[in-house]
Structures are given as C-alpha cells and as structure tokens.
C-alpha cells in the first residue's frame, strides 16, 4: 500500500488523482487531503476517502469543516504550516503537489526535504526556485516525478536504466545521448484568433481550452502560452538541460505529449489522449503501470498530427520566459510572481488579455539583482515582484 498525501485535492489535478485511486483501491491509501477554501468539497472527499488528516488553508473554513466532521476520526488542521506538516508526515510515502501557484512552494519543498516521492504538478514551485529546489531533492534523497503531461512524456522517453537517477536529480539528458527535448504545446484557444481581437478576449474565452479541462490559472497561462514558457523553465531543471536543448513545437491536437531526439537521429514520443489521469497514473505507479480509465487513442479517428513553430509576436510570454531562463537566478521567480498578479487581474476583468505580458515585462525590467542562494531570498524576490507588478497594473488597468 502506498500512503498518499494530496496537496490541493479539490482542484483539477487533485480530483483526477482521486479518480486514478478509485480505479486502484487496493494499492493506495489516502493519508491527507488539503484545500484552500472549498470546505464542502473537501468534506465530501473526507467522507469518501477517510484520510487521517484534512487541511484547510482558510482558518474559518477549517472550523466549518471540523464541525461537519466532528463524528469522524479525521484530524482537521488549518493554515500554511499544517500544509507543510502533512507533506512531511512519516507515514506518507508519496505527495501529490497540486496546489496552484507560489502558494504551493512551501509544502512542495517540505515534501522534498522529507525525502518523499514528490509528484510535481505545481510547476510554479520549480519555476520559482529552480536550482535550490533541485538541491533539496538531491540532498534529501527524495525523488521528483513530473505530472505535467509534457515532462511526464519526456520522462517516459528516456532509457529505463537511467530513470531512477534522473528523478533523484543525479543525471542530465546529455549523458543519455539526448540532443533535444521537443516540448509540444497546443497553442491554446487563441492560436488562430486575429491579432487585433486578442486584446478583447475575456476570461471565459481564455479558459475555454480546446483540448484540456484545467483550473482557471493554468487555462489563462495556456492562452498566453506562459504555461509553455514555464514548462520550458521546468524542463531545464527536471532534466538538467540547457536552454538550447529545449525546443517548443506547437502541436494543436495534443496527442503527442512531447518528444526527445537522440544524437543518432531517433525521435521518441509519448502519445495518448489529452487526459491528466495518464501522467498521474504513470507517476503514482512508477516503475509499474496501473489502469487510469483513460481510453486508448483511436488513430483511425485522427485526421492529422500537425506541427508549427511557436509565434513569439502573438505570444510574448514565450520570449519573456526564454529571457528569464537566460538571466537565471531570481528572474524566473519574478516572472512567476508578476504573472500571478497579472492573471488574477485579468480573471477579475481588471486587465486586458494582451496586457498580461506588458505587466510582466514592466516588472522584469525593474529587476536589479538576480542572485539568489537561499529560499528566503527567493521569497523576498517573490514579494518584491508582487509589489512591482501591482504598481505596474495601475498603468495598464482597464
Ligand atoms: P485548480 O485551481 O483546479 O486547483 C488548485 C488546488 O490548490 C485546489 O485544491 C485549491 O484548493 C488549492 N489552493 C489554491 N490556492 C491555495 C492556497 N493559497 N493555499 C492552499 N491551497 C490552495 O488548479 P489545477 O488546474 O489543479 O492545477 C494545480 C497545479 O497543477 C498548477 O500548478 C498547474 O499548473 C498544474 N498543472 C495542472 C494541469 C491540469 O490539467 N489542471 C496540468 C499540468 C499541470
Ligand atoms: Mg503541461
């Protein structure tokens, strides 16, 4: 029995994880579930999965949940520290890190420091803290398995002989004879929208992804392609790759989830329907395989698999991410924080879609020092960037 903690169990990845566990009830036991404010959904999950701990980030909602669960043997905890505690419980083997945004950094790091099998959906944590995060994985003996479908695909395309050392942060793709990672992305809902209409796109339109059903923040990130930009940075750290070794390829059908090209010219790809239960099942069971209830691809129903170069004019966030990786240090911390502020403002109709990148660009242009050698400095850079981005919003607010 693998004992699991799911951070962010009420979200899209959290619920997909529980759905994979439903198909494999003999192999997994839920020890802890956590949520931000949705006490009703966490309550329903508690009744069904009977975890030992339930954590609400929101203290008032935690009190409410505690009342609803008073007849159950489930300990209800509240706040940020409790998230870190459940991620590091001795009885937990595996932690699904599926909180969205920088809010997930501390608990994800806590799982890493406690040497857990860390299933990483919360890409923002790695984008924010890159090298330091990987150091934590190496020094604690944790393993880091990618949930992001692209990175999970890349991981599935590397030789089995080296996959253990890769997830312990001990091996680079160059050692494996890999020349290039081909990171695919659908191009999101606005791939073909006329450029003069982009500025009037609404949150509803941005969240209507053609292939994937996801939380709001990552849906907007997919529409700006900042999601792909962050995945580019994520790939750099997960696979010890250089920027030149990673190429973004737009593939609108989302059937190929990414590819790797070896130096002998062979290209390996992982394919499947766009359903997060596949990478979740893969990472949960690694190195074994379990059912996920995802159907197989029916190739006779696919009209074509097509590929395009990404368009940095249309998607300036791709350029911003590339530049942040070049600058290094806290540049990607700043990128992430400014993006979170801008996306929030867009989602509450205070910022035009096309000004998301303007707010990030403005914030990044104010950066002076990018050297960071501790998580404390990462958190300082994050707070600084949030203040700057909030200032920048005033200039662009609609
Ligand atoms: P979501 O918004 O659906 O869920 C987020 C979860 O985090 C919820 O359980 C919520 O309660 C919790 N949460 C939010 N703010 C919090 C806070 N301040 N403190 C504690 N908990 C908080 O998001 P999602 O789509 O499930 O995405 C989760 C992560 O997985 C993101 O980092 C995203 O980039 C990544 N990811 C998602 C998908 C997908 O298909 N949804 C695919 C790849 C990667
Ligand atoms: Mg992805």
Could you explain the architecture of this structure?
The mean pLDDT is 97. The protein has helices at residues 12-22, 39-49, 59-68, 80-87, 105-113, 123-140, 149-156, 160-167, 203-206, 216-224, 226-238, 277-285, 316-327, 331-347, 355-365, 375-396, and strands spanning 2-7, 28-35, 53-56, 75-78, 94-97, 117-120, 143-146, 178-185, 246-250, 256-262, 267-271. Helix content is 45%, strand content 15%. The relative contact order is 0.11. The protein is globular. The longest helix is centred in the last third of the chain and has 22 residues, at 375-396. It is an alpha/beta fold and 398 residues long. It has two domains: 2-146, NAD(P)-binding Rossmann-like Domain (Rossmann fold, 3-Layer(aba) Sandwich); 174-273 and 306-396, Rna Polymerase Sigma Factor, Chain: A (Orthogonal Bundle), CATH 1.10.1740.10. α6 (123-140) packs antiparallel against α14 and α13 packs parallel to α15. The chain binds nicotinamide-adenine-dinucleotide (NAD) and magnesium ion. Residues 8-14, 35-36, 38, 57, 98-100, 103, 121-124, 148, 212, 214-215, 218, 276 line the site of nicotinamide-adenine-dinucleotide (NAD).
